[in-house]
Amino acid sequence: MVDEQRQEPQDENLEAEQQETVAAEEDLVARITELEEQLAAAQDQALRAVADAQNARRRSEQEVAKAHKFALERFANDLLAVVDSLERGLELSSDEDPAIKPMRDGMELTLKLFTDTLARHQIVAVDPHGEPFNPELHQAMTMEERDNVEPNTVIKVFQKGYTLNERLLRPAMVVVSKAAAGATGGTIDEQA
């Protein structure tokens, strides 16, 4: 009987220890689960931070490339007035007058130097004479009736346009043909 009485407290102690062990294991499992969730969240944040940094770097590289590509825009616009003046001077001067010939030759060489320099920097002239009107590259100053030319064709260029790296720098100012009154023909884009 004494053995039985000793046995009961031992069983109770053993049961209490087992319950404590089970409770401790459950606490550990809960703690492990919590830590795993925190680790997953931290890994996700780290991946997002790396992706954000890469995107920011890529955006800044693109902005720098764009800035380099189009940095000449304002300066080029200022130079276009000089090119226009040289072209106008050549148009108005006679190549048959021997007194003007040396000056005209100098103007031609200067204009060639200017246009070559512009071309090296991807500044390209838009001279659309005889081409169909393109509102993305041309600015229609007026329209004239012409029987011998397709409607919506550039028949005269007042001022050449220019592009910088294939982006419009200045539109070409042009005269566009339209069908003669009473003639039936293609449609005319008078909204241009």
Automatic annotation (TrEMBL):
Protein's job: Participates actively in the response to hyperosmotic and heat shock by preventing the aggregation of stress-denatured proteins, in association with DnaK and GrpE. It is the nucleotide exchange factor for DnaK and may function as a thermosensor. Unfolded proteins bind initially to DnaJ; upon interaction with the DnaJ-bound protein, DnaK hydrolyzes its bound ATP, resulting in the formation of a stable complex. GrpE releases ADP from DnaK; ATP binding to DnaK triggers the release of the substrate protein, thus completing the reaction cycle.
Protein name, as recorded: Protein GrpE
Keywords, in A-Z order: Chaperone, Coiled coil, Cytoplasm, Stress response
Gene name, Swiss-Prot/TrEMBL: grpE
Family in the record: Belongs to the GrpE family.
Cross-referenced Pfam families: GrpE
Region (Disordered): 1-22
PANTHER family the UniProt entry points to: GRPE PROTEIN (PTHR21237), GRPE PROTEIN HOMOLOG, MITOCHONDRIAL (PTHR21237:SF23)
Oligomer status and interactors: Homodimer.
Lineage: Bacteria, Pseudomonadati, Pseudomonadota, Gammaproteobacteria, Pseudomonadales
Coiled-coil regions listed in the entry: 25-63
Record has Coiled coil as a keyword: yes
Subcellular localization(s) per the UniProt record: Cytoplasm
Stretches with biased composition (Acidic residues): 10-22
InterPro entries, alphabetized: GrpE, GrpE_CC, GrpE_head
